[in-house]
Structure formats: C-alpha cells, structure tokens
Amino acid sequence: MTVNSRAGGVPARIPPAVARSVREVVLGVNDGLVSITGILVGVTASRMALHQVLIAGWAAVVAATLSMALGTYLSVSAQNEFFRAQKAREVYEVHTVPHEERQEVAGIYRAQGFTPEQVDWLTAHTTADPERWVDFMMRHEIGIVLDSLDSPWHAALVMAAAVLGGALPPLLPFLLAPSTGAALPWAIALAVLTAFGLGAVKAVVAGSGPWRSGVQFVLAIAAAVLGGAAGGHLLGQWLG
What we know:
mainly alpha; Ccc1_fam; disordered N terminus; two-stranded antiparallel ribbon; VIT family protein; 8 helices
C-alpha cells in the first residue's frame, strides 16, 4: 500500500498498519458525508424549522456512527475467526496427513517454475518447520496472510472517527447560521469540498490522479443532494 507519489509517479510505501486503516477512513468519511448531507438537504426541503433540522441531523450522525462502528467490529471479528479456523484446519492437516500436504507444497513450487532439484530443496526447507509450513499453505493454497490480524476495536474506532469526520462539515453551518436557508448553501459547499478532498487524498494513497478521484466523490454528494431534495420536497408536500 502507498501514500505519497515519488518522482516518476511511483507510489511510496506506507506502514501496513496505516494501510489497513485506509479502507475504514475512506468508507467512513464518505458514508458520514453522503448520508448526513442527504438527510440535511431532505429535512430542509421538507420545510422543517432549524432546531428540527439539527435534531434530525444529530440523530442521524449518532445512528450512522454507531451503525458503521458496530458493523466494522462485527465484520473484522468474523474475518479473524474465519482466518483462525482456516489456520487450525491447516495445522490439523499438516499433523495428520503430512505426506499429502508435502506433495501440495511441492506442487506449488513446481507451478512457480522451479527445477526438480529446487523443488525438492524448497519443499524440505518449508516443511522442516511446522509453523513455516502452515504459513506457506495459508498464503499459497488459501490466499490468506496471517502476519497480523486486524484489531476489531481499533477498526471500529477508526470507522467511528471517520464517520464523524465526514458528518460534521455539512452539519456545522446549521449550528452557526440563523436559518436553514442560510445554512443549506454552506452545508452543500462544505460537503462538496470535503468530498473532493477525500477523493484527492484517496488518489494520492493509491498513486492515481486526484482530479478524477475527487470528481467521483463529488458525484456521490451530488446524488445525495438531489435524492435528499426530491425526497424532502415530496415529504413536505405529502405532510402539507
């Protein structure tokens, strides 16, 4: 995973612990930004008073934060349980059917293009250490790397902070402006700027173009604004 672009457009490396948090940050900020912007536009379009918009906005922020954080905790916990179960299965097979597992190791090395002599040496080296043997099977047979498992609590906290970070920019004008009409343009403007900034940061991390990525995130905000405005207008008409 990368964070900065070096000369010639080659991305620079970032620590694995930071790289694993990029997904939660992008997903959380985008979710908080898009959902809260859409809700604020919708309740404003339904002609609610300023204090009602704030109540609805804060309730949505709390619900979104808790939902995304708990969902992240549960999903990471389930993933870790699955990885541990797969490792336990490989440990069992290495100890109960070592001949078959040794043949699988040799087959993997042969598929990678090593000579018969190299295959024999590499197989003997890999299977000499049970822990190394299990890690090899996890990586090459199942495609799972168990260098370190993500912490469910850490992932949940990162997600909660990201959702809050995305939700606050569109909500802030409603805390400071005297009316919903004065707050709404500023809320949309801050949401657009935040969305473009998030897209640009994501592009830098991925080593791609910031403008294209920024526009993609802005389009998500545009969809939330249009959807919220349409839904709020229809709700206001229906409720009179």
